[in-house]
Design goal:
By secondary structure, the chain is of the alpha/beta class. It folds into two domains: 117 residues, Rossmann fold; 183 residues, Rossmann fold (3-Layer(aba) Sandwich). 37% of the residues lie in helices and 14% in strands. It contains 13 helices and twelve strands. α8 links the parallel β7 and β8. The two termini are 32 Å apart. The mean pLDDT is 97. The structure holds (2R)-2,3-dihydroxypropanoic acid.
């Protein structure tokens, strides 16, 4: 860890981020950063956090009540992600720590990737490349790597926030898909019309989707919301795409469902316990696996880092963050 010392507020940047963003933060904070991107144990993290006024976190760091117990100086936690299931918001609020996330800047990039994963899964893109590289392509055949059509099929979306809506627009306007969704609450009529999306029950969503995309925020309440029971309600030709959080899907049940043909295929960018991936998933050809990169375009990751920094600077210079999660 690298530190500088002054009278300014003390900021811990838990992981490597864009160096120019760290330099910008140094103009306002006494920064302890981690350019080598060492993975900090919870004990190391707790130790570094003591005496800090603020912390810039990524989705990998769990900031819970136990972690916060000895952080008497902490005033702010700026999370470089739109998802904040790694933060215990009630625990932060209870000790008066403001939390922020990075909404909006990653919506379209994440929706692009959701669609990339959907297309790759339906048309077996990564499997086909492995097959070709392994030297299996000796002649054209009518039935080589037959996939499933995307255009004209039914796109199901579970979780219809900003990213869900951006995926719906791509599906409806770009691919002529019939879009159905389920969400905690139904969207207003104008937004539904713009997305050309129809609200259905959770059961109908599972039953009718050809491609089901998960985009809902993770919470303890929806842990393993998609398990064997739900997978059995899906079409045997359907694919499941998860760009939300790993804990939403029971990966062991999914591997079983992919193996026995309960559903046809899956595309996963997130995993329960990542960066570990359930070993059964690694043995299957009908699943596309990517390492939590849905928001990973150069421009968007930079925008996320800058928004995380802007939140810190705004709060410590003007007393008000840009995208607070638990304002007073
Ligand atoms: C987010 O912003 O929540 C993404 O998952 C981080 O890549």
């Amino acid at each position: 860890m690298h530190t500088t010392s002054s009278q300014r507020p003390r900021l811990l940047v838990t992981r490597a981020i864009f160096p120019d963003v760290v330099e910008r933060l140094r103009q306002h904070f006494d920064v302890m950063d981690n350019p080598e991107d060492a993975l900090l144990s919870r004990d190391q993290m707790r130790e570094h956090l003591q005496g800090c006024d603020a912390v810039l976190t990524t989705p990998s760091e769990i900031i819970d009540a136990e972690m916060l117990a000895s952080c008497s100086r902490l005033r702010m936690c700026s999370n470089m992600a739109v998802g904040y299931n790694n933060l215990d918001l009630p625990a932060l609020t209870a000790i008066g720590v403001l939390a922020t996330n990075t909404p909006n800047v990653l919506t379209e990039t994440t929706a692009d990737f959701g669609f990339a994963l959907l297309l790759a899964t339906a048309r077996r893109v990564t499997e086909a490349e492995r097959w070709l590289r392994d030297g299996h392509w000796t002649k054209w055949r009518y039935d080589t790597l037959l996939g499933c059509d995307v255009h004209g099929s039914t796109l199901g979306i579970l979780g219809m926030g900003r990213i869900g809506q951006a995926i719906a627009r791509r599906g409806a306007h770009g691919f002529g898909m019939k879009v159905i969704y389920h969400n905690r609450s139904q969207l207003d009529a104008v937004t539904e019309q713009e997305c050309r999306a129809r609200y259905v029950s959770r059961e109908a969503l599972l039953r009718e989707s050809d491609h089901l995309v998960l985009v809902l925020p993770y919470s303890a309440a929806n842990h393993h919301a998609i398990g064997m029971e739900e997978l059995r309600q899906m079409k045997p030709t359907a694919s499941l795409i998860n760009i939300a959080r790993g804990g939403i899907v029971d990966d062991a049940a999914l591997a079983q469902a992919l193996r026995d043909g309960t559903i046809a295929a899956a595309g996963l960018d997130v995993y329960d316990g990542e960066p570990q991936v359930h070993p059964d998933l690694l043995t299957l050809d009908n699943v596309v696996l990517t390492p939590h990169i849905a928001s990973a375009s150069e421009a968007t990751r930079r925008a996320m880092a800058n928004l995380a920094a802007d939140n810190l600077i705004a709060f410590f210079t003007r007393g008000e963050a840009l995208t607070p999660l638990n304002p007073e």
